[in-house]
Design a protein that fits this description.
It is a single chain. The protein is mostly helical. The protein has helices spanning 4-7, 31-40, 58-83, 92-98, 107-124, 140-160, 167-172, 174-184, 187-190, 196-207, 216-227, 255-260, 282-298, 302-316, and strands at residues 16-19, 25-28. It contains 14 helices and two strands. A two-stranded antiparallel sheet has the order 1-2. It is globular and about 60 Å long.
Length: 319
């Protein structure tokens, strides 16, 4: 067993130690390279899903590489928007980095939104919700994008007051939001999808501090909602749903829990995947959520479950 510092002194994650047949070892810390290697080691011929265009598909590989470059471009604009102070007063290309006096929007935000338009156009060019049509499931490039887009949704709302899932931006970026909707209907994605609070707490140690800016009134409102400082979002009784990060566009609980509770999805199927649960019975959903929370707490070790029992006993014996 290795400690992280033994092989990756910088502490970078993820990290993969690769050993070749001739005994050579190499530590790889680039996420995309790791994903592509794992795909090579799990080919379609062995029963795994196709995640990349075929090697002899020159057009498909060209599109894949173009999309990978677009993801890097989007990441760059996101870093410029979130991790640098916004300013105004310079036009032209440099103005997109520093801001434009007469645009009403910082240049970094405009550049970020312009790049999102390119992503939206790339998604709109296919017949389904994904970046490629050769499969009816998300492929490699979808996963490369979504890990950072998920961070972008949280950070743009928190530091810039920019809610990219709002009705305004659903109209401006319909293909992008359809892509996110399709992900959020898949249990495998929801199993590792994070929430906005976790993201905005995790981002500064990884990337540096985010700078407040953008649309101030919305920013303050979103910051209070995400951090629980609005006196409502973290206060019992909780609202049935969260306007900023809706829970019911896909399965809000594991499918097995929804099936056990007899909760019907919006497609009429009990505990089904690939559908929303916005019209589901709120009473059944609340009960299933309480049962799920109790099961997770009770299954998290004797210390957690024991402390809960002790508190219950203490509260029941108070005069």
């Amino acid at each position: 067993m290795y400690r992280r510092g033994d092989k990756v002194p910088s502490g970078l994650l993820p990290a993969l130690l690769v050993e070749t047949n001739d005994g050579r070892k190499q530590v790889i810390t680039e996420s995309q390279v790791i994903m592509e290697l794992l795909d090579q080691w799990h080919p379609v011929e062995d029963g795994y899903r196709q995640m990349m265009p075929n090697e002899n598909d020159d057009k498909g590989m060209k599109r894949y590489n173009e999309l990978a470059r677009l993801e890097r471009e989007l990441f760059s604009w996101w870093c410029t928007l979130i991790f640098r102070p916004e300013s105004r007063g310079v036009g032209g290309f440099f103005g997109k980095l520093t801001g434009s006096e007469d645009s009403g929007m910082s240049g970094s935000m405009q550049g970020f939104l312009d790049c999102l338009s390119k992503v939206n156009d790339a998604l709109a060019s296919t017949s389904g919700p994904w970046f490629f049509d050769f499969a009816d499931h998300p492929t490699m490039i979808d996963f490369i994008f979504v890990s950072h887009v998920e961070r972008m949704l949280a950070s743009c709302a928190y530091w810039k007051g920019l809610n990219l899932r709002s009705e305004t931006y659903r109209r401006q970026f319909p293909a992008l939001n359809a892509w996110l909707d399709a992900f959020e209907k898949r249990e495998c994605y929801l199993a590792f999808k994070s929430d906005y609070y976790t993201h905005v707490m995790d981002i500064p140690p990884q990337y540096g501090p985010g700078y407040d800016g953008g649309f101030e009134n919305d920013r303050i409102k979103y910051q209070k909602s995400i951090s629980g400082r609005n006196g409502k979002s973290w206060t019992l009784p909780l609202d049935f749903d969260d306007v900023l990060q809706p829970l019911y566009r896909g399965p809000p609980l594991p499918l097995c829990v929804l099936k056990a509770a007899g909760i019907v999805g919006d497609n009429g199927v009990v505990g089904g995947e690939g559908t929303s649960y916005e019209k589901a019975d709120p009473v059944k959903m609340a009960e299933a959520s309480r049962n799920m929370a109790g099961w997770k707490l009770a299954g998290n070790g004797e210390n957690v479950s024991g402390s809960i029992v002790r508190r219950m006993l203490i509260s029941n014996h108070r005069p």
